[in-house]
């Protein structure tokens, strides 16, 4: 229960930050990627603002033997550079540019513009399920 | 306001970014996990078998729209503008869903959490999806789609 509440608080803050920062607007996100058009640098300020507290969090983390409310840290590796990482990132970048949406803002928009964002969210989960059931060989 | 970019929201963007970073810090220091939206969404829906405990993933994923809803209520209005047709959303959604699973992350996991950790994997992924995003929108503009 305690851990569920912490996760809910994290999600709440995350969603509130997305809405406040303008990142829930697909047109604004797409405008950040539109270097040769109506470029809007807002996303860079959002990334800077988000990375700042997280950089401190990683420093604090390095001095903890375990997280405050869970038995152990469970974090992904950082070193491996392989083909799935590259192909996945390229596919994601294409979809991000075409729609102006990535997973966080898409889910946040379920509360702001549910009808408009629903096709994207449905397609996103279909794409995730497709990866599970039709995986590409990793070699 | 930045004179050359009248639509930019640098102050709101930075403050909103701080909230996002704080959310990710709570996940890391409280539960020992990355606040990666694509991974947690896949886990919450049962598409992924491994990862965060189900209750953690579900609570985080429900918190996203709830937090956005509360912020929109507090602000009075949050402006959003979507493509005129459904096709960019369908094609984009499929690519984002498949790509984030294959590449193990999106803007939150690789971008916010990975870059701040100086993870080589995340730096490569973020560089690639950002570059691909710039090229994709550049091609859409060159082709007269925007």
Description:
Chain A is mostly helical. Helix content of chain A is 66%, strand content 0%. Chain A contains six helices and no strands. Chain A is globular, with a radius of gyration of 17 Å. Chain B contains six helices and no strands. The chains are: A mainly alpha (139), B mainly alpha (146). Chains A and B meet through helix 1, helix 2, helix 3, helix 4 and helix 5 of A and helix 1, helix 2, helix 3, helix 4 and helix 5 of B.
Q: Averaging pLDDT over every residue of chain B, what do you get?
A: 96
Low-pLDDT segments, ≥5 res of chain A: none
Q: How many strands appear in the DSSP assignment of chain B?
A: 0
Largest sheet of chain B: none
The total beta strand count of chain A reads: 0
- Helix and strand run of chain B: HHHHHH
**Overall body shape of chain A:** globular
Quaternary organisation of the protein chains? heterodimer
Query: Structural class of the secondary elements of chain A?
Result: mainly alpha
Order of helices and strands of chain A: HHHHHH
Give the count of structural domains of chain A: 1
Count the DSSP helices of chain B.
Answer: 6
Cα distance spanning the termini of chain B: 25 Å
- State the low-pLDDT regions of chain B, or none: none
Report the major sheet of chain A. Answer: none
> What number of domains of chain B?
1
Report the helical percentage of chain B.
55-70%
**Biggest interface:** A-B, 118 and 115 residues
């Amino acid at each position: 229960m305690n851990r569920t509440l912490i996760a809910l608080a994290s999600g709440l803050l995350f969603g509130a930050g997305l809405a406040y920062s303008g990142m829930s607007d697909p047109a604004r996100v797409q405008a950040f990627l539109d270097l040769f058009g109506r470029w809007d640098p807002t996303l860079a300020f959002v990334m800077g603002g988000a990375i700042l507290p997280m950089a401190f969090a990683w420093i604090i983390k390095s001095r903890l033997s375990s997280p405050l409310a869970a038995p152990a840290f469970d974090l992904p590796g950082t070193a491996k550079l392989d083909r799935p990482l590259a192909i996945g990132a390229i596919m994601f970048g294409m979809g991000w540019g075409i729609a102006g949406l990535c997973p966080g803002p898409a889910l946040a928009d379920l509360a702001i513009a549910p009808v408009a964002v629903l096709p994207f969210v449905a397609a996103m989960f279909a794409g995730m399920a497709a990866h599970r059931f039709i995986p590409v060989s990793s070699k | 306001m930045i004179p050359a970019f009248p639509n930019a929201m640098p102050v709101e963007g930075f403050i909103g970014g701080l909230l996002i970073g704080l959310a990710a810090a709570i996940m890391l220091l409280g539960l020992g996990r990355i606040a990666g939206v694509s991974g947690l969404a896949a886990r919450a829906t049962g598409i992924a078998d491994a990862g965060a405990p189900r209750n953690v993933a579900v609570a985080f994923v429900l918190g996203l729209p709830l937090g956005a809803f509360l912020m929109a209520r507090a602000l009075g209005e949050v402006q959003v503008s979507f493509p005129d047709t459904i096709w960019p959303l369908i094609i984009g959604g499929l690519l984002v869903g498949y790509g984030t699973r294959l590449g193990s992350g999106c803007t939150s996991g690789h971008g916010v959490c990975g870059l701040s950790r100086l993870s080589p994997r995340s730096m490569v992924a973020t560089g690639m999806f950002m570059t691909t995003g710039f090229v994709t929108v550049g091609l859409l503009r060159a082709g007269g789609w925007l």
